[in-house]
Amino acid sequence: MVVEVGYAQGWDPEARMPWQPISVGEARERDAAGLPYAVVYRAAGREAPLEVRLVSWRDHYVGLWVYDAQGRRTYELDMRLLDDPARLLRRHTVGWTYTGPETAEFDEACPRITVELFPDGRGRRTEEPQGKGGGSYGTVPSVRDDERWMDRPVFGEWPLLSAQVHGLTEQPVFEIAEAADDRSGPAPATCWRPPRPAQPGPITELFRPGVRVTDGHHPEMTVVEPRRIGTLRVPSGLLAVSGPDGDDGDGPHITVPVPPGEYGLEEAQARYAYHCEWERSQVTRTDTLAVRVLVSDVPAATWEMALRPDDDPRLLRENEIFGFSTDGATGCFADAGAWEPLLALFEKGLIEGDPDLDPGVYEDLDDSMYLLRTRDRVSGGELVAFATTGDGTHPVWVGRSEAGEVVGVAVLVEGMPELLPESGTAADA
Asked: Which domain holds residue 63?
């Protein structure tokens, strides 16, 4: 069987067409430079591609999308290049089983199997026999080392990885397609790009009065002056950000080095109006969007996701995060140097409800997303717990100055709001 191999700068999954076709020589140059490119495998007489390989070595990523005769994606493989340059981790796979030729691509009723693998041997296999919403069950996959890892082929020597899926019993013969001459025009909005972890978004703007945002539930919210809720003492110079209810005995989830000192605690808030059915009138409400430790008055030039020592951002898929975990919709800022005694006081006060705690070491906070404060008498370190809107994992964002110094550490209590155009701009006209 003859399989035509074409190269392009990108792939448009909506149109199922390559974007800006390039020659094999140009593709080889992009491969060596780590730049993104796509490889499309086609068979004569078949409109849909057999498979599309998406490569971006600078992002440590190789993707494989397999298509059926109807042009639907039936299998997706996400591979990652980690510390060993000679092999790729099969990080994530998902396969869809379409119930008929007319079933739409990614129909939620389609049965699917997802497998997540990690380099340390962990993994999870999830089956959804009735599709999304129809129930699922997960197991730990039994995977051999050669199933977890794939040898990295050199450029131009990749096999047709979907040959078995398409029922090919003989080794295909590859022919290089000629690149089209017309390469004009910008990339379509639907064009593939390498997966990116969650991005910080407009965190600075959430603490800037007058900025307009939307949280997806309310079409327009206006940021008000940040609310100051006391201070936090960090004499050890190591700020902890963690879920106090999920301590695993290894200390706080996230730590950020800061100069020893006492720092302001703030809430980013936004005001909005809505029609209240209960009061049958327009009501104005102010909600908290984020909490932060203000380390310096110097503006943050950049924001980055805080990582634990074992967190590897090369493993993150689109919009995935690392952060602290909570089973009680609670996080905290604390002095990591006094983590154990501070956490013990938290448990005695909030969880056990000990009425005999000295007000000098335990204090309830009212009318705020900040819930309580504990103090370690020996070191002077403090812990302040705050509420989130749900359980799970919450990213921690570290703001840095132009010089790279930490100026703030923030946690969003829910999702990242979206900026709206400034009043008086052309978008408002």
From this structure: 2-176
pLDDT-derived band at 422 (thresholds 50, 70, 90) equals confident
Domain co-membership, 147 together with 296? no
Query: How is 305-337 classified by DSSP, letter by letter?
Result: E---TT--GGG--TT----EEESSSEEEEEEGG
- Do 153 and 210 reside in the same domain of the chain? no
Query: Is the separation of the CB atoms in 116 and 124 below 8 Å?
Result: yes
Is 188 part of a structural domain of the chain?
no
Same domain assignment for residues 128 and 210:
no
Q: Give which of 302, 253, 298, 324 is closest to 407, Cα–Cα.
A: 298
Burial class (CB within 10 angstroms; exposed 0-12, middle 13-18, buried 19+) of 241: buried
In a domain, 196, yes or no: no
d(CA 394, CA 402): 26
Q: How far is CA 86 from CA 121, 152, 154, in A?
A: 18, 5, 9
Structure tokens at 369: 């997303």
Which residues, in sequence order, are bridge partners of residue 362?
374
What span, in angstroms and rounded, lies between the C-alpha atoms of 336 and 326? 18
Given a contact cutoff of 8 angstroms between Cβ atoms, the answer to whether 428 and 421 are in contact is yes
- Answer whether residue 190 is part of any domain: no
CA dihedral defined by 59, 62, 63, 69, rounded to 10 degrees? 140
Backbone angles phi, psi at 315, to 5 degrees: -90, -10
Total-model pTM: 0.90
More confident residue, 183 or 213: 213
Do 107 and 223 sit in the same domain of this protein?
Answer: no
Q: Which of 127, 156, 176 is the last residue of a domain?
A: 176
Task: Taking residues 161-176, report their average pLDDT.
Answer: 92
For residue 231, CA distances in Å to 265, 292, 373, 389 come to: 5, 11, 10, 23
Based on the fold, state whether residues 15 and 108 are members of the same structural domain.
Answer: yes
Q: Are 127 and 113 in contact (CB under 8 A)?
A: yes
Sign of dihedral through CA atoms 318, 323, 327, 329? Answer: negative
pLDDT band at 115 (very low <50, low <70, confident <90, very high): very high
* HSE-up (13 A, CA, CB side) for residue 10: 17
Query: Is residue 96 domain-shared with residue 233, that is, in the same domain?
Result: no
At residue 428, what are phi and psi to the nearest 5 degrees?
-95, -5
Question: What is the C-alpha separation between 337 and 344, in angstroms, rounded?
Answer: 14
Are the C-beta atoms of 37 and 8 separated by less than 8 Å? yes
Contact 65, 16 (CB under 8 A): no
Is the pLDDT assigned to residue 183 strictly greater than 50? Answer: yes
CA dihedral angle for residue 401, residue 404, residue 405, residue 410, rounded to 10 degrees = 60
